[in-house]
Amino acid sequence: QVQFVESGGGLVQPGGSLRLSCQVSGLDFNRFGMSWFRQTPGNPRDWVASIGGSAGISYVDSVKGRFFISRDNAEKMVYLQMNNLKPEDTALYYCNRLPPVGVWGQGTQVTVSS
To answer: Pick from 20, 101, 104, 111: most CB atoms within 10 A?
Structure first.
């Protein structure tokens, strides 16, 4: 069974940095691209970044130049380095396959506030 376990979130001041991690299991990891998504209360889950697959590496415009996605195929890990964080980056962050499957992890909360 596919499982995603996100970690690394927290409370950070504007301009700060965080590195999110996602451990993936139950998936032929090397075959698929992986993505990060984020969600705020009352809103749908939005795509943030992807790596691998036909998409290569891509980012939503609002995070370009600040967020960097990477992966470790041997460890089945996906990372999101987030720099120069802004209050509007506050959200619950999830990782999933590309395209996403119907199973989601618990997410990791990122709060950017002074």
So the answer is: 20
pLDDT digits (tens, 9 = 90+) for 8-66: 999 999 999 999 999 999 988 988 999 999 999 999 999 999 998 666 899 999 999 99
To which H or E segment does residue 7 belong?
A: strand 3-7
| Closest alpha carbon to 6 in 94, 81, 87 | 94
Sheet with 18-25: strands ordered across: 3-7, 18-25, 77-82, 67-72
Are the C-beta atoms of residues 53 and 86 closer than 8 Å to each other? Answer: no
- What Å distances lie between residue 51 and 2, 4, 59, 112, CA to CA? 18, 16, 9, 25
Q: What is each CA distance from 3 to 12, 21, 29, 96, in whole angstroms?
A: 27, 13, 11, 9
From the number of C-beta atoms within 10 Å of its C-beta (0-12, 13-18, 19+), residue 108 rates as buried
